[in-house]
Specification:
The complex is a heterodimer of chains A (264) and B (106). By secondary structure, chain A is mainly α. Chain A has one domain: Orthogonal Bundle (Cytochrome Bc1 Complex, Chain D, domain 2). Helices cover 42% and strands 7% of the residues of chain A. In chain A, the strands form 3 sheets. Chain A has a 3-stranded mixed β-sheet. A two-stranded antiparallel sheet of chain A has the order 1-2. Chain A has a two-stranded antiparallel sheet with strand order 3-4. In chain A, helix 3 crosses helix 6. Chain A starts with a helix and ends with a strand. By secondary structure, chain B is an all-beta fold. Chain B has a single domain, classed as Sandwich (Immunoglobulin-like), CATH 2.60.40.10. Chain B has no helices and 8 strands. Chains A and B meet through helix 3 of A and loops of B.
C-alpha cells in the first residue's frame, strides 16, 4: 500500500471521525412516545387550574407582559411592539429556544434573547434575571406558542453546548451525589416522599409554582433542583445553565408548550 | 395597583345562577417568615373582599394569613337585573383595589 495514501486516510479518520460523531443524532433515553409532560404528574385540581385560563394565576403575568410589550424603553423610546407588532407575531418562537444568536455569538434562552433585544435594539438597561418585567415578557412570548411542539436545533454551532448540557445532565453532583438522570430518567413515575417524580421537562416554563406561590423561570426551577441535591447552582443565564436548558428542550422534543403551566 | 382578572358572563337570563371568578395579584405575606438575614418579613395581606351587584352586596369574605398568594375566589349569585358588578379588595393598610364588570340580564 502506498505510504502516502495510508497517511492520508489516517489523517482523514483523525480529523473527521469526531465531526461525524458530533453530527449523529444522539440516542434518546426516554423514547419520544413515552414522553410525559410535567402536567401528568400533578393533581387533577392543579391540572384544571392550568387548563382554565380564567383561573390560571400565570395569566396575571401574561396580562402584565402585554402592558410592557407596548411600553417604550431606552433613549430611542422603542417598545417591543415598535418592531414586532402584535405579540402573536412571535407565535412558535418559544418552541425553538434555547437557540444560537448570531448577534450575541452564543446560545441564548428566551430570557437571554429578550435581554439581547432590550440592550441591543432598545439600548435600555437589561433586567435582572427573575425580575417581574422579564418574567412577564418571557411568559407573554412563550404563551404565544401554547400548544405548539418543542423543536430545538442542536446541529452546527450549538452542538458543543448541547454536549456540555448532556454531560452536566448525567454528571453526579452535590453532597447527595445525584445526577438529573438518576431521578428524571431512571426513576420517573416513582414516589419521592409524597411526590411523584416527573420526567423533568421544560415545556411549562415560565410556570406558576405552588411551592413558590409565584411564577418563575426554568433557570429558577433548575437552580432549585441543584439546591435539592446540595450542589452549587449555576447562575441564571450562565452558559452551563443554558446548555442544560438546551439538552432538556431536545429531550422534550414534540411536547407542547404549556406556558403558563401550574406546577406543584 | 395589583393586577386583577374578573370573569363574569356578559349576558344571562333573569333567575339564572351565574358563576363569578376573580383573581388578584398579591403576595399574601404571612408575617411568620424570615428573610435570609433572619429578619422577619412583615405581614402584608388582603383582609377583605366584597362584591356588589347593582349596588347591593352579594358576596363578602374575610381573608387571613392562611390564604395563599394571588387569591382566587369563585362564587355564584342569581342574575336579577342588568347592572354593574363591583369588586373590592381591601388590604391591611386600607388600600382598596377596585374592579368592575357589567352583566346584561334578559
Amino acid at each position: 500500500m502506498n505510504v502516502r495514501r495510508v497517511v492520508a486516510s489516517v489523517v482523514l479518520t483523525v480529523v473527521f471521525a469526531p465531526l461525524l460523531a458530533l453530527a449523529e443524532e444522539p440516542a434518546r433515553a426516554i423514547p419520544l412516545p413515552q414522553l410525559r409532560s410535567g402536567k401528568e404528574f400533578v393533581s387533577a385540581e392543579t391540572r384544571a387550574q392550568q387548563d382554565d385560563l380564567t383561573v390560571n394565576p400565570g395569566m396575571l403575568w401574561v396580562d402584565q407582559g402585554e402592558k410592557l410589550w407596548r411600553e417604550p424603553a431606552g433613549p430611542a423610546g422603542r417598545s417591543c411592539a415598535s418592531c414586532h407588532g402584535e405579540p402573536s407575531s412571535l407565535t412558535g418562537a418559544a418552541t425553538r429556544y434555547p437557540a444560537y444568536d448570531a448577534g450575541a455569538q452564543r446560545l441564548l434562552d428566551l430570557e437571554g434573547r429578550i435581554q439581547q433585544c432590550r440592550t441591543e435594539r432598545q439600548k435600555a438597561l437589561p433586567f435582572a434575571y427573575e425580575m417581574q418585567p422579564l418574567l412577564a415578557l418571557t411568559t407573554l412570548v412563550a404563551y404565544q406558542s401554547r400548544g405548539l411542539p418543542i423543536h430545538v436545533d442542536i446541529s452546527g454551532t450549538v452542538r458543543p453546548a448541547f454536549e456540555i448540557g448532556r454531560r452536566l445532565y448525567y454528571e453526579q453532583q452535590g453532597q447527595l451525589n445525584i445526577s438529573c438522570a438518576q431521578c428524571h430518567e431512571q426513576n420517573w413515575g416513582k414516589r419521592l416522599r409524597t411526590e411523584r417524580i416527573s420526567q423533568g421537562h421544560p415545556n411549562g416554563f415560565p410556570a406558576y409554582r405552588l411551592e413558590w406561590q409565584t411564577l418563575g423561570s426554568l433557570s429558577r426551577r433548575l437552580r432549585a433542583c441543584f439546591q435539592g441535591v446540595r450542589a452549587e447552582p449555576f447562575e441564571a443565564g450562565s452558559s452551563e445553565l443554558v446548555a442544560i436548558e438546551l439538552y432538556l428542550a431536545w429531550r422534550a422534543e414534540g411536547l407542547p408548550i404549556e406556558t403558563p403551566a401550574v406546577r406543584r | 395597583m395589583p393586577a386583577t382578572r374578573i370573569v363574569v358572563p356578559a349576558t344571562a337570563k333573569k333567575g339564572d345562577v351565574i358563576e363569578i371568578k376573580t383573581l388578584i395579584n398579591h403576595v399574601m405575606e404571612t408575617g411568620f417568615r424570615h428573610d435570609n438575614s433572619g429578619k422577619p418579613i412583615p405581614r402584608d395581606i388582603i383582609t377583605r373582599f366584597t362584591c356588589t351587584y347593582a349596588g347591593e352586596e352579594v358576596f363578602r369574605m374575610d381573608l387571613f394569613t392562611g390564604v395563599a398568594a394571588n387569591p382566587f375566589v369563585a362564587f355564584t349569585t342569581i342574575a336579577t337585573e342588568t347592572g354593574d358588578l363591583v369588586f373590592e379588595w381591601t388590604d391591611q393598610h386600607g388600600v382598596v383595589t377596585r374592579g368592575q364588570a357589567r352583566i346584561t340580564v334578559t
